């Protein structure tokens, strides 16, 4: 499992855009990021440069090839790139999209739409292609104002798409994307208990403020999110120790623990014996 953009930072050329929570990446085919379990914590504008990529979401698949652009909201995806796949990715928060909408379509009102909206796909124009080339140059070779330029280019690309959007499909997609529909807490926690998410991440991904998330969580589960998360990870680890032959360290990591010593300590506190005992009992039986 991977978490993007966080897990891309150490492997791909990127810039963090100034004065806002935005990132620009150029994905190198030598370091692919495909995964059948991907958590995207920010909205993403993807430009496929070479090769192709399949993006699975909500039981649907979208096949993107060189020249395609996709805009997808944050959420859980399965991503399968080809061997020659490269791309440019721009990650952004609601604030940037809200600013764009308020600046250019402030009076637009959309009809109520389904919660399950597929990522939006469109083709490049000559104008967009020229802008993307400039953005890639500034990501790969950052200069003094590169972060500001990439942010401005992103705005320009969205504006170009908007100008050709006579049906208002793109505007509806953006409006829905930032609507922050609340996600069921039980479903979200079960899907993401083993991921390295902060309280801020969990609140944002479920469409709540941090205070509202903590309050609602405590009322529903009678414990804090962190305590629930640790307990769920330990239950998962205990099951894996008894029913698989994976190494203890691998089980700890897959359960969401980054530190083996900490895993052993909290496991013993909960079950009265270290993780190795569960594996030994399995062997003896």
In short:
The chain is of the alpha+beta class.
Structure description:
This protein has 285 residues and is α+β, with helices and mostly antiparallel strands. The chain has two domains: 2-177, Jelly Rolls (Sandwich); 182-285, Homeodomain-like (Arc Repressor Mutant, subunit A, Orthogonal Bundle), CATH 1.10.10. The protein has eleven helices and eleven strands. Strands 2-3-10-5-8-11 form a six-stranded antiparallel beta sheet. Helix 8 runs parallel beside helix 11. The radius of gyration is 21 Å and the shape is globular. The model has no long low-confidence stretch (mean pLDDT 86).
What is the total domain count?
Answer: 2
Kindly report how far apart the N and C termini lie: 32 Å
CATH H level, superfamily name of the largest domain: Jelly Rolls
Helix content: 40-55%
Order of helices and strands: EEEEEEEEEEHEHHHHHHHHHH
Largest sheet geometry: 6 strands, antiparallel
**Cα Rg:** 21 Å
Mean of residue pLDDT values = 86
């Amino acid at each position: 499992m991977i978490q993007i953009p966080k897990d891309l930072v150490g492997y791909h050329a990127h810039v963090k855009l100034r004065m806002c929570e935005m990132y620009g990446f150029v994905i190198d085919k030598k370091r692919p990021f495909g995964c059948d379990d991907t958590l995207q914590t920010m909205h993403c504008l993807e430009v496929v440069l070479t090769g192709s990529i399949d993006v699975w979401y909500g039981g649907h698949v979208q096949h993107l090839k060189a020249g395609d652009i996709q805009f997808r909201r944050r959420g859980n995806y399965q991503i399968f790139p080809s061997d020659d796949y490269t791309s440019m990715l721009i990650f952004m928060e609601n604030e940037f999209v809200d600013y764009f909408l308020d600046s250019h379509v402030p009076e637009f009102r959309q009809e109520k739409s389904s919660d399950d909206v597929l990522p939006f796909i469109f083709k490049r124009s000559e104008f967009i292609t020229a802008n993307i080339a400039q953005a890639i140059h500034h990501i790969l070779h950052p200069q003094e104002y590169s972060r500001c330029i990439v942010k401005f280019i992103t705005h320009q690309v969205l504006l170009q798409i908007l100008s050709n959007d006579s049906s208002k499909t793109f505007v509806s997609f953006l409006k829905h994307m930032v609507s922050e529909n609340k996600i069921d807490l039980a479903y979200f926690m079960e899907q993401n208990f083993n991921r390295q998410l902060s309280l801020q991440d969990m609140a944002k991904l479920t469409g709540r403020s941090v205070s509202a998330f903590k309050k609602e969580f405590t009322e529903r589960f009678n414990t804090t999110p962190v305590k629930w998360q640790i307990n769920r990870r330990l239950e998962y680890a205990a099951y894996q120790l008894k029913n698989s032959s994976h190494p203890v360290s691998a089980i700890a990591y897959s359960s969401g623990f980054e530190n083996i010593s900490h895993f052993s300590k909290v496991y013993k506190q909960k079950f009265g014996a270290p993780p190795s005992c569960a594996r030994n009992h399995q062997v003896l039986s």
